[in-house]
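This part of the workshop introduces the protein records we will be handling. To make this concrete, we reproduce a full record directly below.
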Amino acid sequence: MILAFLFGAISLLYATVGQAGGTAFLALMAFASFTPQEMRPTALALNIVAAMCSTLIFNWGRLVDWRKLWPLLSASVPTTLVGALIVLPEGTYKAITGLVLILAAAVLIIRRKRDAVQSAQLPIWGSITTGAAVGFVSGLTGVGGGVFLAPILIAFRWASPKETSALSAPFILANSTVGLLGTMIVGQRPSAYTLMYGVAAAAGAIIGTAIGIRWLSENLTRYVLAAMLAAAGFQLLLV
């Protein structure tokens, strides 16, 4: 029951910036002594639930720029499946994921506020390379990809922080679904308590998304995301 509450709290916090919480889900499961075979598929299953709730809310508010999203998804979905079929040693997996998240947080902090306010059209080469790379890493790690996509979109000014939040949720939903399929193909299965955890994650995502849309400014969104990326990165390196 305590774990379910913590999963819900994580989902709430991450949903304020359009994320599902996969990195923190993984860190929490590591602290709770989940087996490596359970961690990745359970995180992906919770990502699906949380991202679905956020996507529905963002889409209902007409906040998702589908013209920017479709090219990213067309490149990421195939590579997500490829990444999901690869099983890394636990130590290597945590080290790579943790370092990438900390680097992403640093990028968001270093960039000036004025660099993130104006957003440019996402070029086709940017969609293909970013989607393919992020998709592969998301399948490999089981984090859904939003935490890798968001810093890239903001750093290159391809989307503002608010636009990035709305793009991240459906991106995570699609890639987590494909990633979960891949992990099950290689014999990994979610925890037996995933349904209970999923209910908590859904409730957190609904509340968190509403908070992010209504009360978080562009600049605050950027710094909240950076703090979460750094925290999750250090968690994965330390557990």
In short: The radius of gyration is 16 Å.
